[in-house]
Known about the structure:
The complex is a heterodimer. Chain A is α+β, with helices and mostly antiparallel strands.
Amino acid sequence: xxxxxxxxxxxxxxxxxxxxxxxxxxxxxxxxxxxxxxxxxxxxxxxxxxxxxxxxxxxxxxxxxxxxxxxxxxxxxxxxxxxxxxxxxxxxxxxxxxxxxxxxxxxxxxxxxxxxxxxxxxxxxxxxxxxxxxxxxxxxxxxxxxxxxxxxxxxxxxxxxxxxxxxxxxxxxxxxxxxxxxxxxxxxxxxxxxxxxxxxxxxxxxxxxxxxxxxxxxxxxxxxxxxxxxxxxxxxxxxxxxxxxxxxxxxxxxxxxxxxxxxxxxxxxxxxxxxxxxxxxxxxxxxxxxxxxxxxxxxxxxxxxxxxxxxxxxxxxxxxxxxxxxxxxxxxxxxxxxxxxxxxxxxxxxxxxxxxxxxxxxxxxxxxxxxxxxxxxxxxxxxxxxxxxxxxxxxxxxxxxxxxxxxxxxxxxxxxxxxxxxxxxxxxxxxxxxxxxxxxxxxxxxxxxxxxxxxxxxxxxxxxxxxxxxxxxxxxxxxxxxxxxxxxxxxxxxxxxxxxxxxx
Amino acid sequence: xxxxxxxxxxxxxxxxxxxxxxxxxxxxxxxxxxxxxxxxxxxxxxxxxxxxxxxxxxxxxxxxxxxxxxxxxxxxxxxxxxxxxxxxxxxxxxxxxxxxxxxxxxxxxxxxxxxxxxxxxxxxxxxxxxxxxxxxxxxxxxxxxxxxxxxxxxxxxxxxxxxxxxxxxxxxxxxxxxxxxxxxxxxxxxxxxxxxxxxxxxx
Lengths: 504, 203
């Protein structure tokens, strides 16, 4: 990863080298670019709105940033001091080679449009739709600028500051079958069988709607609709203090809730410039890896059920219950644990908990091996998963794949190695990578990851650091209950943190 | 409670021993006595309603409408440890036409509400609804622009199971509560008076 100044120099040289042919990025335009670094060390490039498509063409063609992470907006309705345009449009870029990140910011006023970059980065397509849906910023030239998350009868743009969080709008009907590239579609026109799958279908394991036209067992074309579980997380987070957002993060990722707790708290801690104690780090690593294992259990169990292999599901859920029992011992909850707090953990692990974890690991290892025995060499399983849904490494990156699906396509990208946090750089583990990117490879990658996670947990559990489970900064962490009920300072501290939220 | 097939074997005793055309009074009396004795051994009397309710409550076929976190806990309820099969409700049907118990497990958004009503209308009577968890019951802590504030706004609910998500034990308790309601013929005015809400179009 380059340092800030190195990265900016590289981008500057790219700009002069690649933008010769494009008239938009004249030296005069590049003069207007602002290269900034935020207080926590993020690189930000502020540019005029007209320069956006040309800039992203340069970033793409130079190969500097191949991963398009996100487009989002910020509504400055109540903070217009020092600016004339209402919205910031923010692009997040990442490099799968150097692991460096870049944030590109530009200002857009109400009624103004901004050029789409979905023709440059494929992954931008849905993000721009989402940004339009939520903020009403129009991306000119977008192939299909329709609502992505809210329903088709929704009026207004909910993440604007003048939209009330609790203003619900009923939806009267589901959209009929439709295809993006075919406005005149009528079922039966093309002598293909129209097939609607979801949003309530056993194989979606959630709320995805796929509209397909099938020719025998081959899908001729398909369209997808989502947003059936749009629970307004961002708006809820806007209306709650930082610590009260933690329970929402559980429910964003209900298969492995603690991972999201940790991701969120880590971000807030980074903004506050807070380092958590070693014991809290160790507990977070253990929780993360246990969660990774049980998340893969749900994935593999459900996947096998869809192919008719119910036995694997029963095995995997037996072992998932072991982890639930560990979570219950730790905090009383099974699924949505909300165990982290900004600054550490909510409470210490009970006595003997780390030994229980080690015990459970042994049993889980046996369980994973049993399921491998059922599936890995199973002819039916192989024939139905090998070659299905294959994707190349380039396409996976272009469409913004992450996690095991990306690694199954052959890209060895894992933030635990790429940008190590907590104690991951001191631990011995490998990143499993696939070759073909098909469903079978994704299965193999997940199984291998579970074994690596068990290795990590065992290493950490055998060397639990001594010390506190949280920092003791009064402006961030709630006081002990003995102080709350024992003295007025503790009581006031508690009161202010609950009522006003943490502040610095 | 013995099963209903012994009831029919009781009636076959009757048809074997008495033929109405040539039954003499004494024979009739003896036959009545025999029927009485036989029925004490093999048969029981009940009301049709009760036997139907008994069958219905012990063979609930659930359709899991899992949309979010509760759906994962519902998988645990079906799983080996909590084993919903013990209550006769393990035959999970994903076609609403084959199911009689709709378990709504998870947040129902405004976008999902018309789909939920459509699925509910496709189910055949008798049909029951369990609302699992805070979101399905009231919108939970999502007092938000795209979340339906409780599924009672669109379909009739028989049992609410609280929790976020509820423990599997709580869901089992909900199923047992519903079984008790069916067995006791608890009146269900919310079901009898239900109409599709005006804001949702028919399909």
